[in-house]
Write a structure and sequence with these properties.
9 strands; single chain; globular; alpha+beta; 4-stranded antiparallel sheet; 5-stranded antiparallel sheet; Immunoglobulin-like; disordered N terminus; about 180 residues; disordered C terminus
């Protein structure tokens, strides 16, 4: 599926032809709240259907992947590189859109995200015209059954991956 081009409000007003808005620019408040044996908890601030409006978006698309590169703008739409999270994968919360600005908390099943594996997550939102927001920030979580390991928040390169590995190695050494 191909995304429609998103334009700035300035271009919209000076254009001879109307162009669609993105649901929000960008939707980058996705966070890992917890990552334990009981599952992984994500939260995000809901985008509106047009820029920062309170009108709910038409849909959210939440995906997970084993590598952050599989959630980039160019790879997000590929179902071969990543997997879409559905309502069936949730133990709490819902992917049903809510008014823009509200905080959404989603609990992912430990069956969907088994412990001791690193998972990367990203989202997009769609409006009723079929226009997608840019891909959100990419976050990582490492569910673990040991104490002392914290969830990883935003992933923005090699340093975050190194921090994830250090937390994992530290907990493996301490608790063996």
């Amino acid at each position: 599926m191909c995304r429609k081009q998103c334009w700035s409000p300035i271009f919209y007003f000076i254009s001879l032809y109307p162009v669609p808005y993105c649901p929000v620019i960008p939707f980058n408040r996705v966070q890992v709240e917890s990552a334990t044996c009981e599952g992984l908890t994500l939260s995000f601030t809901a985008p509106g259907s047009s820029m920062d409006s309170e009108t709910p978006a038409a849909a959210y698309i939440l995906k997970l992947a084993a590598a952050s590169a599989n959630l980039s703008d160019t790879a997000f739409d590929s179902d071969e590189a990543n997997e879409r999270i559905t309502e069936m994968d949730l133990v709490s919360g819902s992917l049903t859109p809510v008014p823009g600005g509200q905080t959404v908390i989603l609990g992912l099943s430990p069956v969907r995200c088994p412990p001791d594996q690193l998972y990367f997550f990203a989202m997009t939102a769609w409006n009723t015209e079929g226009v997608s927001s840019p891909v959100s920030n990419i976050v990582a979580g490492l569910p673990t059954c040991t104490t002392g390991a914290a969830p990883v928040q935003s992933f923005s390169g090699g340093l975050a991956l190194a921090a994830v590995l250090l937390v994992y190695l530290r907990s493996a050494i301490i608790f063996q």
